Amino acid sequence: MASGLFVVFEGIDGSGKSTLTKAVWDRLGTQAQLLREPTGLHTGKLIREKLSAPQTIPQKDWIQLFTEDRALDVEQHLKPALAAGKIVLMDRYYYSTAAYQGANLPDLSAAEIVKAQQAMFPEPDMLVYLEISPEAALARISSRPGLEIFETRSQLERISKNYESILPKGTLRLNATKSVDSNVQTVQRAIETKVPI
Questions:
Q1: Which one, of 165, 14, 24, lies nearest residue 90 by Cα?
Q2: Is the pLDDT confidence value at 1 over 50?
Q3: What are the residue boundaries of the structural domains of the chain, listed by start?
Q4: In the chain, at which end, N or C, are there fewer CB atoms within 10 A of the end residue's CB?
């Protein structure tokens, strides 16, 4: 059975993570599959509705929502794509859950969330993290209509610190202020060291 490559892209809001993920996918063509969290499944749509809603939701409920969405995505999309030998590019994964929800859970650290998620889901073969200051990220997203509930300076600062506490050794760190093309080339070279392109 073929064995694919699982690449996860992470970063705080405003880092350009989604733009980079799609640009890499465009460059790789049909040998790659693009996935994102929240998904387009009913579980992901529910999360998007709640992200734009004014009411507050307990952080542990957020973790449950994302875990349910991830479980469906892994079984329906991730595992079949990897089994088919695809390069799977995932826009956010359980590192996001840990960084974002760990920002507001004093009794559950980001590291503990990662550990629990790793016991349930496949680990990525490559983790790409876009580095940007919370101030610069907020400046980028402040012009967007309808900010989501995590898009405040204090939240982004806590989320950024959480990421720094959970990113594993070997994470490919990229400067988010560099051009998209430059970062795409860096990611593509890193992928080429693991699979022939």
A1: 24
A2: no
A3: 5-192
A4: N
**Tokens coding 25:** 């996918």
Q: Are 68 and 45 in contact (CB under 8 A)?
A: no
CATH number of 5-192: 3.40.50.300
Q: What is the pLDDT of residues 139-187, one digit of tens each?
A: 888 766 555 556 678 889 999 999 999 999 999 999 999 999 999 999 9
| Largest interatomic CA distance in the chain | 47
Phi, psi of 122 (to 5 degrees): -60, 140
Q: Which of 15, 10, 20 is nearest to 141 (CA)?
A: 15
> 111: phi > 0 → left, psi -120 to 50 → alpha, else beta; which?
alpha
Residue listed under structure tokens 């990525």: 124
Q: Which residues contact 1 (CB under 8 A, 6 or more apart)?
A: 83
Residues paired with residue 88 on neighbouring β-strands, in sequence order: 6, 33
> Would the pLDDT of 34 be above 90?
yes
Is residue 4 within 8 A of residue 86, CB to CB? The reply is yes
**Cβ-Cβ contacts under 8 Å for 49 (sequence gap 6 or more):** none
Bridge partners of residue 34, in order along the sequence: 89
Nearest by Cα to 93 from 120, 112, 66, 116: 66
State which amino acid sits at residue 125. D
The per-residue pLDDT for 76 is 98
